[in-house]
Amino acid sequence: MIRTTSTRAQTILLVEDESELANEIKIELERLGYLVRTASIAEAADAARVGDAAMMIMDRMVFGEDSLKTLEVLRKEGVKVPVLVISALSSIDEKVHGLKAGGDDYLAKPFAMVELAARVEALLRRLDDVRTTKLRVGDLEMDLIEQTVHRGDTRIDLLPREFKLLEYFLRHPGQVITRAMLLRDVWQYHFTLETNVVDVHISNLRKKIDTRGGTSLIVNIRGAGFMLNTDA
Q1: Residue 61: in which H helix or E strand, if any?
Q2: Which run of H or E residues covers position 120?
């Protein structure tokens, strides 16, 4: 079930030249409480520049034009509106290209409407999360503006990647976090990668944030991944 209480009345720009698909997307998202406006690439770009939408769903190829070129321009201009790229081009290379061009997520056609809706919710929830300036679990506090971390009165100095990793756990307290999720959302690897980089960074992070003799804040969940222990 997609939650709609926090998304109601948020406007989504839809750039899609397949009228039947565009109509299906519009019906599904409006059923969930979103406002959906169809637009050309140029119209969507202009609206994004003035902040006239919460996010965009952008088909990769629209009337023979590659919308990623416009997306790259928007990102260079500093426009940060979340963009979900949808496309029949489904290879790993095409997905990587779409994400590097500025897409926040990439969904290959054909797709189920429930998956598209879930991705939309995730992007909008991430946008709401960004507005938070302080994250806290127990006596561990992260200040996103000052870029500082304290456990009680003790300041903890973290490397940039360690800071991002801890921020991710603080945004998902008590939830099981898989290595794949961390590689995708913290390292921005949107493809399968065999590496122990996650485990190495978590080990280093634990040494900095855990108290001597106390329970580890980040615990292993056997066969699943990790979880931020809210009772530590």
Answers
A1: strand 61-62
A2: helix 113-130
Q: What is the pLDDT of residues 127-149, one digit of tens each?
A: 665 556 788 898 999 998 889 99
Q: pLDDT tens for residues 190-225?
A: 666 677 899 999 999 999 999 887 788 999 998 889
> What distance in Å separates the CA atoms of residue 73 and residue 44, rounded to the nearest whole number?
13
139-184 pLDDT, tens per residue? 999 998 889 999 999 999 999 999 999 998 998 888 888 988 898 8
**What are residue 80's phi and psi, to 5 degrees?**
-110, 10
Determine the Cα–Cα distance for residues 170 and 165; give it in Å rounded to an integer. 9
DSSP 215: P
Q: Which residue has the tokens 């959906």?
A: 36
Spell out the alpha helix ranges (H) of 131-159.
none
Torsion over CA: 181, 183, 185, 191 (sign)? negative
The answer for residues whose C-beta is within 8 angstroms of residue 86's C-beta and 6 or more apart is 16, 57, 58, 59, 60, 106, 107, 108, 109, 111, 116
Biggest CA–CA distance in the chain, Å, is 63
Task: For residue 68, count other CB atoms closer than 10 A to its CB.
Answer: 21
H helices, E strands: number in the chain: 8, 13
d(CA 68, CA 5): 31
CA torsion sign for 133, 137, 139, 140 is negative
